[in-house]
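Handout, page 2. Input:
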Amino acid sequence: MTKSPWSGSGRDTPRTPASTPGRDSPWGARARTKPPAAASSRPAPAVASADESGEDRRELRLYGRNAIEAVFARRPEAIRKLYLLEARIPQLQPMLKWCAANRVGYRVVGEDDLRKLAASTHHEGIVAEVLREAPLPLGDWLQTLPEGPACALWLDGVGNPHNLGAILRSAAHFGVGAVLLPREASLALSGAAARVAEGGAEAVRFVRLGRDENALAQLRSAGFKLAATVVRGGEDLFEAALPPRLIYVLGAEGEGMDAALAEACDIKLGIPGSGAVESLNVASATAVLLAQWRQQHR
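Output:
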């Protein structure tokens, strides 16, 4: 297998073997404003954190204000339930009014209950149950693309939710069209990833690939070149002329991407550094890669 350009002391979740086809909020002081009539001030029962790793789950538990407000802005109908601290009511009035008008339940709860719901101390005063958005098939995504420059990320084995969240945040910042997921990859959005993405998870679509050879053919037919990211032997990213339609293929830290997939890519790229460390973390490297593409194709 080709080693990832970001293998270091912090490892991502290991991918499946290559032989298997291939996952303090600054909101201000506590307010005493009373909740709207539709809200109940009774604490919610303690709820265990759901297992969000599988795509067969229709609902996803999100936490963090930016992550939830991004869902509200783009697809409010996906919101099924809200839990919030009393102090957050003034900042969330538009969302709460929408919930009341559309008979979506919400409940004011205490800090301990919210922490249990989120299974995290980083809930920022709000937790929501939302419907998952199913990944698009590759063909459907390609049909929606306008002409001109486009960039996407093919994640081959990336699984750590904090890395995924940081990747989604960078992708949203630089206008990346999609994150491409191998056919049998178990990677799916989690509450932790969505919080780290700070709203970016709603700006970047997940796209499900078919067989690798078919996906490669479809992408090339749409004018894309694929770039494998490597530690050694790759072209210097900062000297390379990057194609206007580009797919960066990123492997998990430690294990790297599938060797056959790396060989099937059109180009190989590396990020030069001082040599004091072997490489960058996969999420940090993604930001560098995307910034360089954006610089060339504004």
